[in-house]
Amino acid sequence: MPDGFPVYPFDHDHGAPPRTLAELLGGKGAGLAEMTTVLGLPVPPGFTIGIPLCRDHRANGWPDGLDAVLAEQCARLGERTGSRLGDPEEPLLLAVRSGSVRSMPGMLDTVLDLGLNDVTVEALARSSADERFAWDSYRRFLRMYGTTVLGCGHDMPGLRRDGDIGSLKNEVADLKARIAEATGTPVPDDPVVQLRSAVEAVFRSWDSPRARVYRAREGIPDDLGTAVNVQAMVFGNRGADSGTGVVFSRDPSTGEPRPYGDYLPQAQGEDVVAGGARTVPVADMAASMPDTWVELRHVLHRLEVHYRDICDVEFTVERGRLYLLQTRVGKRSAVAAVRCAVAMAGEAEIALTPAEALERVPETIRLTARRSCLAEAGVAVPGTVPLTVALGASPGRVSGRAVFSSELAAEDESDDPLILVRPDTSPDDVAGMAVSIGVLTGTGGLVSHAAVVARGWGIPAVVGAAELRIGEDGAVLADGTRIEPGETITIDGTTGEVWRGDVAVADTRPEQEEEILALALPELGTLVGWAAEHAATRSASRL
Fold first, then answer.
1. What is this structure's pTM?
2. pLDDT at residue number 373
């Protein structure tokens, strides 16, 4: 490797805990290296292209010598996996993912199944003895490459989860033709070209409009850049004993100590987070994959104890075998932050100090949690029947004008509160979410992009409202009831209820507030007490 190139295999010895090197490896790369070298968890092998190379690319274009480094790293990966990039018998297939210092869920780009072409798809079919799986993976690659690298996402047909092998082959041919016609550039057959283009696409996604909007909202500097993680593929679409999911070690809405997330059998990771698929609760794995579920729970416990915090984990199961694709400290609501900080202070394996708990839950978050609890204690005015009940994905109740386009929401110049209503939400909807007080989607689960971003921003969200048919001209229920653009609706991100109109709640009296908080969130009183003790200690030390 040329001197100065920050490209590292996951098992590289950095001489320091990888989790402390996010400025170099990005959060995802640091997590993958930590799980590989420190915890010995089942992570598919790969390597990280460090953040400094993204900065170099932004300033000067593709770095000289990086092609040789990628070739070297792919050869090393091939030796470990018994495969080779572009090999007609045992092709190495890759996942290319982003990974900034700060978590930016869904804002940067990903390419999966890289390395497939008309020759290697046949090799994958032979080695897996599953022709349908191979051609399903090929069409997934073409869709993702066409969208992410060549920029023709709006011309891509929806991904069907059924169909025989003949229809899959026809879909592949149609995708190749659509991409070539829309962009004037066919998808390259050479996996080396595919890889370079995918890495450049991830670098470019740092400056995409959606990423800029998200960074502005989060206060993330524009000059940080992103790492790129290149990893041997594992396949959640391999068969009935395969699947993919995202799981939090604790409920990020309430802080309850139970795994929380979504799982999708016979799928790949983007199917879950994109919000377009009908996922199932991750706990359903206890019935369908009991041994894998036990292993996953054990892994979640190890990660939580190691990081001393809630962990957000992406995973894939291939033929019954669990693989971890990411871990990071999970975004959470204010209520969950309060509850988890106090709980972890009392757990011997984590044992946060009161000072650490207060650092995680400063006064602003404690006040937000207080307001949230008091609002949830209110009771809807009698006689108000919800239009539908879906999944409460981010807590809180809000009322506002329904807007059915992210562009219209972002362009709205009124002072009216807006609720963004979408069939599903893609990362491109972030501009609309940034100006809305709530989000309602027709599809998607508890860990879709909409849910994760909404929780991080403290925006109430209801997802998976399958009874609503949502378009840009409004939404309609099966009985013909419509929600028109501009109509006021109310959503409750805790209960999942959706109402027409501004559904008021009965105000709590001031004298009731402390009693309500003592019952609903006693941990808040604990933190307030610790804060008072901390202030008294600091005051005494200054005397």
1. 0.91
2. 84
